[in-house]
Amino acid sequence: MTSQFHSQNRKELADKLLPGSLALVFSGKAPLKTGDEDYPFFAERNFVYLTGITEQSLILMIRKEESGEWSETLFIRPPDMLKERWTGKRIRAEEAEAFSGIRDIKQSAEFDTLFNKLANSGRYSRLCLDLFKFTPDKPDDEAYLMVKYARNIFPAITIVSIRPIMKSLRLLKFHTWKLAHVSRV
Q1: How far apart are CA 131 and CA 143, in angstroms?
Q2: Other Cβ atoms within 10 Å of 62 Cβ, number
Q3: What is the dihedral of CA 144, 94, 49, 18, to 10 degrees?
Q4: pLDDT, tens only, 117-155
Q5: 165: which residues sit within 8 A by CB, 6+ positions away?
Q6: What are phi and psi of 131, to 5 degrees?
Q7: DSSP string, the chain
Q8: What pLDDT score does 180 carry?
Q9: Fold observed for domain 3-182
Q10: What is the rounded CA–CA span in Å between residue 98 and residue 93?
Q11: What percentage of the chain carries pLDDT values higher than 70?
């Protein structure tokens, strides 16, 4: 897949968000196996659909203004040569831009400050998250932890799940792909 494919997917998501929406999509984290070992990591599928990146601990932020204009930021982990010896090389800003087409790339340490500034700005009335659990006893992922945080700190912001939007976008792409390939047979 090309960066244009992922850019178009983000545009389609942004088009479906209501003005005054702040959307966050997390790539996920590997579950802990033992004290110093994680299970293999698999990125959240909707994050990959929107960015083309399969690395853990990344955050995509899409802001849709009241005017209808939208912008996007990708938060990546900073390089850490010591940790990378054990866990593998982390994606760099240039690579993230090449995969995703996102130009505004920031370090993950900047996320909390920017999110709090935006949530306090009064420009956003909705926090849109990719919320889904197979069973209620599944541990909370980053999106559910963000729900708890936002409800506590920013009670005026409405929490919205973008899962139905993502499902419709991905289903449409699959049917379009299927029709194109079946018609060739």
Answers
A1: 6
A2: 22
A3: 60
A4: 999 999 999 999 999 988 888 889 999 999 999 999 999
A5: 13, 16, 17
A6: -100, 125
A7: --HHHHHHHHHHHHHHSPTTEEEEEE---PPEEETTEEPPP---HHHHHHH----SS-EEEEEE-TTS-EEEEEEEPPP-HHHHHHH-PPPPHHHHHHHH----EEEGGGHHHHHHHHHHSSS--EEEE----SSTTSPP-HHHHHHHHHHHH-TTSEEEE-HHHHHHHHHHHHHHHHHHHHTT-
A8: 47
A9: Creatine Amidinohydrolase; Chain A, domain 1 (3.40.350)
A10: 9
A11: 92
Give the pair of three-digit tokens for residue 109. Answer: 């340490």
Domain ranges of the chain: 3-182
Tokens at 13, concatenated: 């998501």
Q: What does the alpha-carbon distance between residue 156 and residue 46 come to, in Å, rounded to a whole number?
A: 27
Q: How far apart are CA 176 and CA 32, in angstroms?
A: 38
In the block, residue with structure tokens 């204009």 = 69
Closest CA to 47 of 37, 57, 36, 34: 57
| 83 within 8 A of 76, measured Cβ to Cβ | no
Summarised one tens digit per residue, pLDDT across range 24-37 is 999 998 877 777 77
